[in-house]
Amino acid sequence: MPADPLDILRTTFGFPAFRGVQERVVARVMAGDGTLAVMPTGAGKSLCYQLPALARRGTAVVISPLIALMHDQVRSAEAFGIHAATLTSADSDRDETMRRFREGELDLLYVAPERASNPGFRELLRLTELSLFAIDEAHCVSEWGHDFRPDYRLLRPLLDAFPQVPRLALTATADEHTRADILQQLGLPQDGLIVAGFDRPNIQYRISPRDGLAQQLKAFIAEQEGAGIVYAPTRDATERLAAQIAEAGRPTRAYHAGLDPAVRAKNQRDFVASEDMVMVATIAFGMGIDKPDVRFVAHAGLPKSIEAYYQETGRAGRDGEPAVAQLFWGAEDFARARKRLGEVDDARVAGERTRLNALAQLVETSECRRAVLLRHFGEHPATTCGNCDNCLSPPATVDVTTVARKLLSAAFRTEMRFGVGHLIDVLAGRDTDKVISNGHNRLSVFGIADEEELKLVRPVARVLIARDALRADDYGGLSFGPSARPILKGEESVGLVVQPKRERRRKRAAQE
Ligand code: ADP
Ligand code: ZN
User: Which 8-state DSSP code applies to residue 395?
Assistant: First the structure.
């Protein structure tokens, strides 16, 4: 077997070249260095561990959270002639898999994280040479991540028991905070972080308030060519919407955990084979499904986080051809999510709130959706993309530059530590205890905003955060981002979307 990665890429995988950061990731793993690869869906994460698994001696242990996903991965690895197997409670051929593993016949062994704590499993791993540990969906290890799974915390002792085996963590979705946490939790070096560009230029992002969802969906789908996915929040909604969409004459299927497994599998097969089917599904659908020509993804309700939105919309247009991502949201979605915050344990509530605010900014912004999205992932995109609803038909806005400058000044004068509530008190000239004890009643910005302006401060704060003129810390304290200066200096203006009355009600609920 050739040990040169490029040879293996061409002969085994049949790809002429590495894509994006794959080459850097593979090189680090080959050198035995701990690595965290943050790569968007479709960027080719699997190859980053599959290839070193072939090029290095021994078997690669791949930790993955979903059994269904593992079986898909094994099938696609085997299609390349890679020797792969899963070791899960769902497998009846475990003895045979263990034999193959012991005898060094496997390139890849997929396991679920809960197995990692099993002492028998650790002993099994000692029986043969290991080429690497690959930790898929690595954001699950972080309480900051949007999908924390306690079992992932069992991995560290396992990894540490094999210090000579390189570790590669992979995820499609991790904001900066989560990335730092993953590095720490899995014992990876700071310089081991490799982040791929997140832009998916062929996806057109559109976001609108819900207003007669079934009708909106039918109208949207009527405009679209090709197969698409509609994500619905519940099983019931899935079935109901599927029936409504089917009325419009498109072949339609539903997909959710409550369906008979045989029906579910058939619906999925039908969808993958179809060129014009609409799959109405819960978000579990789409993971690990290889259908590059999905032409649209519609959300019937708010996703869980920007990461989830990015991942779910990312299932569209993996072939690089134009695709559309349409999100319909309602204030009820935010109200429900904020209520759920009350049930989250203290350690996670700040993270959850930050996530929700980020979503609110994305749906409310009058600016380029792509820019907001990419900035969320730590990139520095152009201010317009020309391929989102706001760029294509800019919404009507009112000029709120004056309010924005007053708010920025107030943040600056109070030393950029306070949240918007306190800044409103200062701008309003209210002598609250907190204002007095901090001496903020003596500042030049004390009482400089009138009633009308005060009403705009909260929405303006969100616009400024979306634009990276203000940054909120975990406790809501606002400080300047790089876009603050040009606004303060009068070089840039700030607009606020004018909402029709009905939408205004929705927005209010989103903000509470
Ligand atoms: P991810 O797990 O990051 O979502 P996958 O590993 O499923 O992505 O890869 C997405 C698709 O890209 C797969 O069909 C895979 O075979 C293909 N792919 C991966 N690497 C390359 C490459 N270097 N050149 C061409 N296609 C690639
Ligand atoms: Zn845009």
Answer: P
DSSP secondary structure code for residue 150 in this structure: G
- Tell me if 200 CB under 6 Å of ligand 1: no
Task: Describe the crossing of helices 346-364 and 451-466 by its angle, rounded to 10 degrees.
Answer: 100
- In 210-251 the beta strands, taken as DSSP E runs, fall at 228-231
Q: Is 43 in the pocket of ligand 1 (CB under 6 A)?
A: yes
CA gap 381, 288 in Å, rounded: 29
The rounded distance, in Å, linking the Cα atoms of 113 and 67 is 11
Find the ligand nearest to 17 CA: 1
Rounded to whole angstroms, the Cα distance separating 464 from 457 reads: 10
Compute, in angstroms, the gap from residue 103 CA to the centroid of ligand 1: 30
In degrees, to the nearest 5, what angle opens at C-alpha 270 toward C-alphas 269 and 274? 120
pLDDT, position 157: 93
Task: Report the b/e string of 361-383 with b at 16+ CB within 10 A.
Answer: bbbbbbbbbbbbbbbbbeeebee
427 Cα: distance to centroid of ligand 1 (angstroms):
53
Question: What is the C-alpha to C-alpha distance for residues 300 and 325, in angstroms, rounded to an integer?
Answer: 11
Interval 236-259: pLDDT, tens:
999 999 999 998 889 999 999 899
| Structure confidence at residue 146 (pLDDT) | 76
> Among candidates 410, 422, 403, which has minimal Cα distance to 480?
410
Closest-lying ligand 1 atom to the alpha carbon of residue 17: 23
**Pocket lining: 46 vs ligand 1, CB cutoff 6 Å:** yes
Give the closest residue to 186 by CA, choosing from 202, 196, 198, 174. Answer: 174
Nearest-angstrom CA–CA distance, 101 and 92: 16
ipTM value of the model?
Answer: 0.97
**How far, in Å, from the CA of 391 to the mean position of ligand 2?**
4
* Amino acid letter for position 266: K
Q: Strand 478-480 vs strand 470-472: parallel, antiparallel, or unpaired? A: antiparallel
SS3 of 184, please? helix
CB 277 within 8 A of CB 229: no
pLDDT digits (tens, 9 = 90+) for 109-123: 999 998 887 888 999
Q: Choose the weakest-confidence range: 149-163, 229-243, 478-492.
A: 478-492
At 405-416, the pLDDT tens digits run 999 999 999 999
Backbone angles phi, psi at 173, to 5 degrees: -140, 100
Task: Report the C-alpha gap between 129 and 109 in whole angstroms.
Answer: 12
The helix-helix angle for 213-223 and 235-247 (nearest 10°) equals 50
Q: Are strands 130-135 and 108-111 parallel, antiparallel or unpaired?
A: unpaired
Ligand nearest to the CA of 45: 1
